[in-house]
Amino acid sequence: KVHSVFGFWSGAEITPWEADIPHEDVEFDFGKADVRPDQAPRIDKTLELLADKIKRYGGLLKLNLYVGGFTDSVGSPGSNVELSQRRARSIGTYFRRKGVKIPIYFKGYGEAHQAVKTPDETKEPKNRRAVYILSTSPPRALSAGGWMRL
Prior knowledge:
This protein has helices at 40-57, 77-97, and strands spanning 2-3, 9-10, 18-20, 64-69, 104-108, 130-135, 148-149. By secondary structure, the chain is of the alpha+beta class. Helix 2 (77-97) links the parallel strand 4 (64-69) and strand 5.
């Protein structure tokens, strides 16, 4: 509640703002984190959407880009977290090199939050993915801690 000197008040709710950026998933070579040249057009299409949202909301809000990486369940959980983190960083670095000026954060989730539930050691391409979230604070849909800034 905000009170005036005359005793009047008004309530306000402050809610963090975020928007998922739709995109085609980038395909990586098995065990690799480099963005292949044939995958660049997928990220470039996403850059157009991202630039539009930054232009539309960047003057009103302090925006950050969050890139979360995921893997399938092949390999150890620890190595999958490390691989997904390198992939998320690779995508974030691509965005930076292409001119994205807002702060970029990345985080690897490994095989957590699978898009398609599978047993261990299952090759599932839909689980090897990344999410891009434009937000004023760490995304609520994913665990908030552990984001690293480029």
